[in-house]
Automatic annotation (TrEMBL):
Gene Ontology annotations for the cellular component aspect, listed alphabetically: plasma membrane
Pfam families tied to this protein: Ion_trans_2, TrkA_N
InterPro entries, per the entry: K_chnl_dom (IPR013099), NAD(P)-bd_dom_sf (IPR036291), RCK_N (IPR003148), Trk_Ktr_HKT_K-transport (IPR050721)
Protein's recorded name: Potassium channel protein
Localization (cell): Cell membrane
SUPFAM superfamilies per UniProt: NAD(P)-binding Rossmann-fold domains (SSF51735), Voltage-gated potassium channels (SSF81324)
Taxonomic path: Bacteria, Pseudomonadati, Pseudomonadota, Gammaproteobacteria, Enterobacterales
One GO BP: monoatomic ion transmembrane transport
Transmembrane segments: 6-31, 43-63, 69-94
Length: 257
């Protein structure tokens, strides 16, 4: 619950503040029992932080039993309270960042959704961003590294309604299922059509030619094959035939003879 998260956050911050106060003023109180002597608050804060983070540079050394015992308590509290609290606070910040991204996705409209993380997906993503268009990528956590920093990504199963809703496919202009697996592309487009109906354009790629006829049953707005596209363009170039926008459109839409 929100209340418990807030309470835990207050406890974490309060624990860090109390630990810093204890460490700094304890160091100042025992300042003459360190070598060199600690006589100002900046040196005390420095020593406290070094101990709490267990860095231990060794430039300030406790020389009495009392100072050594005090230093041990700071180290122990640093390992437990300081580290635990910092980890919690970082976790809260990360969760907050994810919530911001989710809210941003919910307000996206007329954006493009790219499903997949292969070289084709990365190239399409870069091309769309170069034109100043909004793009959301659906891929696994491991595949996020294929895309540039700052890419808006949704991690999860591309055929799962929760994942697709998080990418707000209902308000998208176009959804492109272009992974390396024809089955994954098929299931993703079927799920998209269930959620968004016919109002969203759909594009998919055929990786295995034997699946072409089956994938056409999806009635995607564009179903293309990279192998066919490459061979058609190469043959036209070798035969000296003209290649213009109309010819390329015919090849992509499988209208070529």
């Amino acid at each position: 619950p929100h209340h418990s998260l807030t309470s835990a956050g207050v406890v974490a911050v309060s624990s860090i503040i109390l630990l810093v106060v204890y460490s700094v003023f304890g160091t100042l109180y025992l300042g003459n029992e360190f070598q060199p002597h600690v006589t100002d608050i900046s040196a005390a804060f420095y020593f406290a932080l070094v101990c709490m983070t267990t860095v231990g540079f060794g430039d300030i050394i406790p020389i009495s039993v009392e100072a050594r015992m005090f230093t041990l308590t700071v180290v122990v509290f640093g390992i437990t309270i300081f580290t635990t609290s910092i980890v919690y606070i970082v976790g809260v910040v990360l969760r907050g960042t994810r919530e911001i991204v989710k809210k941003r996705l919910l307000h996206m409209k007329e954006h493009y959704v790219v499903i997949g993380a292969n070289p084709l997906a990365v190239s399409i993503y870069k091309g769309l961003k170069k034109r100043g268009l909004q793009v959301v990528v659906i891929c696994s956590d491991e595949d996020k590294a294929h895309f540039p920093d700052g890419t808006v990504t949704v991690a999860g199963d591309s055929a799962d309604a929760v994942t697709l809703n998080e990418a707000n496919v209902k308000d998208a202009r176009c959804v492109m299922a272009i992974s390396d697996n024809d089955a994954d592309n098929t299931f993703a487009l079927l799920a998209v059509k269930q959620l968004a109906g016919e109002g969203v354009k759909t594009v998919t790629v055929v990786n295995q030619e034997e699946n072409r006829d089956k994938m056409r049953l999806l009635h995607a707005d564009m179903t293309f094959s990279l192998s066919q596209l490459g061979s058609e363009v190469l043959m036209k170039m070798l035969c000296g035939e003209n290649i213009n926008n109309s010819v390329m459109a015919d090849i992509l839409l499988a209208k070529a003879p």
